[in-house]
Amino acid sequence: MRFVHTADWQLGMTRHFLAGEAQPRYSAARRDAVAGLGALAAAAGAEFVVVSGDVFEHNQLAPAVVSQSLEAMRAIGIPVYLLPGNHDPLDASSVYTSALFVAECPANVHVLDRAGVHDVRPGVQIVAAPWRSKAPTTDLVAEVLEGLPADGVTRVLVAHGGVDLLDPDPTKPSLIKLASVEDALARGAIHYVALGDKHSLTDVGSTGRVWYSGSPEVTNYDDVEADPGHVLIVDLDEADSKRSLTVEAPRVGRWRFSTLSRDVNDTRDVADLDMNLDLMPDKDRTVLRLALIGSLTVTDRAALDACLDKYSRLFASLRVWDSHSDLAVIPADGEFSDLGIGGFAADAVEELMKAARADDETANDALALLLRLTDHGQQGRGAA
């Protein structure tokens, strides 16, 4: 038996740092990752798809998001089993019980809307632990595993949430207890555990049968999500009494959320940063956060600003990570001596330089603007 394990689609997600047309492209990429599971499943010979929670970003979605998402699921072409998670629980406002979802839900899409066993076909079952609120007060997995027999049926547990091994917080009653899961695996009541909630590909414990698939399209920076962008192709040998297992993790994600740390202390460092940004592929699908450390002259800072301004128009998002950056601007001696200004204007520049040396950010910005304006003016006279 072969199936696809995926999770955390979070359809309808927005990212505050995506401006203009980048956000619609990102949303479309998330839907495309879902629709693309059809070709992947067909190539792998998969029978069905399980989605281990957080199918949607939340329950209050625009009608267009619901309709487009269901159309993407329809395109998969084989049965798709959706587990409500913490983002889209089966509460009173659930998207899964909305009139629009019920009316447009394709025949191949099934909501795992009750805890316990769901028949897939003779000899194969899904054991589901859906969320009914954003804050369960018990281990939902332990409840569905209790009393589950080892009777020769091949079973896949589909669940959502943190595991105590990875998040040992005694104040979280909803944590999945790995010991009870591994006990059910050991006695043959279940044979694979498809988890959602953690957005990076993660093998949990030592059995090789408990996995987070991660999100198929990245949702956060690389310091939070180490290995996103995968789905899992799971193969359980039904002819083997122990249900021997293979798990493959093809990469399907196309976007990147990356962090680049650089020291910038002179014009050569700025030029080196420019070259690195220029060589990065797929800029329109890359969200880049810069951690910049160094001391620059006003001239070099103006060159850095011009560099960042250029690439901010090319990347899906490019921004300086303020909390991890420390850029000092120190005017160099004679840096403004050849501007051809005198009198009151020269005195004003001198005062700005004193303030800039005292780490006055407004003065730094004013001097950088003066350099840019002066440079543009000189270029204009040269062209004339």
Automatic annotation (TrEMBL):
SUPFAM superfamilies per the UniProt record, alphabetical: Metallo-dependent phosphatases
CDD domains found in the cross-reference section: MPP_Mre11_N (cd00840)
Residues of the Calcineurin-like phosphoesterase domain: 1-168
Gene Ontology MF terms: exonuclease activity
Family listed: Belongs to the SbcD family.
Protein known as: Nuclease SbcCD subunit D
Alphabetical UniProt keywords: Exonuclease, Hydrolase, Nuclease
Source superkingdom: Bacteria
Entry keyword annotation includes Hydrolase: yes
InterPro entries linked to this entry: Calcineurin-like_PHP, DNA_Repair-Maintenance_Comp, Metallo-depent_PP-like, Mre11_N, UCP033093_metalloPase
Annotated Pfam families: Metallophos
